């Protein structure tokens, strides 16, 4: 049987490792964050401990059941939980990384519950590196390919996206992806808008952004434009 101290250590260690992954997701404002990942890892750890030690004295010759059977259900169960974080908006799919982080948190919890501490530590380190460092690398690669993220906020109307696309086309800017968020009810000291459209665009080598800003400013309904994290139009005025 497992000792009380070992039981407590495994559960707390699982919570800490899951919390590290959850903290990274929480900081990046993802659907599943700090608490969710802690609950997944601790729950998985407990089920693994129960699978190994909870049935000793039962079954044939008192050897208990097969430890892998109960623990295996954690993987399929977490699959349903992860599916709840995946959202589809048109052709854009969001939440896959968070779903994968929940799944790997379950695996870490199982490893800790089985006493496989080294594997749990290494997996947590790899997961954190993938979520944090590789995410920054992806953003830098996007910049090297001359991709830009353009967030347009304004009052939606028929033909609104088409007018923006016309301006981009005039300057040979290719649109790679569009995400539309409606009824944001975001307020500022001077204005409010009810739609935000995020464009991932590829710009030509020589682009006069000033002319692009002027073209966007003249579109009816646009109140705010943020280009690569820098606000260039505010309250329909070029900054």
UniProtKB/TrEMBL annotation:
GO terms for cellular component: plasma membrane. The keyword NADP does not apply. It is a multi-pass membrane protein. It comes from the Bacteria. Residues 149-230 form the ACT domain. It is found in: Cell membrane. The chain crosses the membrane at residues 7-23, 38-58, 70-87, 107-137. Pfam families: MgtC (PF02308). InterPro entries: ACT-like_dom_sf, ACT_dom, MgtC/SapB/SrpB/YhiD_fam, MgtC_SapB_SrpB_YhiD_N. Keywords: Cell membrane, Membrane, Transmembrane, Transmembrane helix. PANTHER family: MAGNESIUM TRANSPORTER YHID-RELATED (PTHR33778:SF1), PROTEIN MGTC (PTHR33778). Belongs to the MgtC/SapB family. This is Putative Mg2+ transporter-C (MgtC) family protein. It comes from Natronincola ferrireducens.
């Amino acid at each position: 049987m497992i000792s009380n101290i070992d039981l407590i250590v495994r559960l707390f260690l699982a919570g800490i490792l899951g919390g590290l992954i959850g903290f990274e997701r929480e900081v990046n404002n993802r659907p599943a964050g700090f608490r969710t990942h802690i609950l997944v890892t601790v729950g998985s750890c407990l089920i693994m401990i129960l699978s190994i030690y909870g049935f000793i004295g039962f079954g044939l010759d008192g050897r208990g059941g097969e430890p892998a059977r109960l623990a295996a259900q954690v993987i399929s169960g977490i699959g349903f939980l992860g599916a709840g974080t995946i959202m589809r908006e048109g052709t854009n799919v969001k939440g896959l990384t968070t779903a994968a982080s929940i799944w790997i948190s379950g695996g870490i919890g199982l490893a800790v519950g089985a006493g496989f501490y080294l594997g749990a530590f290494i997996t947590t380190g790899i997961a954190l590196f993938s979520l944090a460092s590789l995410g920054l690398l992806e953003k830098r690669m996007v910049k090297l390919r001359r991709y830009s993220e353009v967030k347009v906020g304004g009052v939606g109307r028929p033909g609104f996206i088409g007018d923006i696309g016309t301006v981009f086309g005039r300057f040979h800017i290719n649109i790679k992806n569009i995400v539309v968020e409606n009824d944001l009810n975001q307020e500022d000291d001077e204005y409010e808008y009810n739609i935000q459209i995020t464009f991932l665009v590829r710009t030509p080598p020589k682009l006069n952004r000033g002319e692009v800003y002027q073209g966007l400013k003249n579109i009816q309904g646009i109140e705010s434009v943020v280009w690569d994290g820098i606000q260039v139009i505010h309250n329909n005025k070029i900054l």
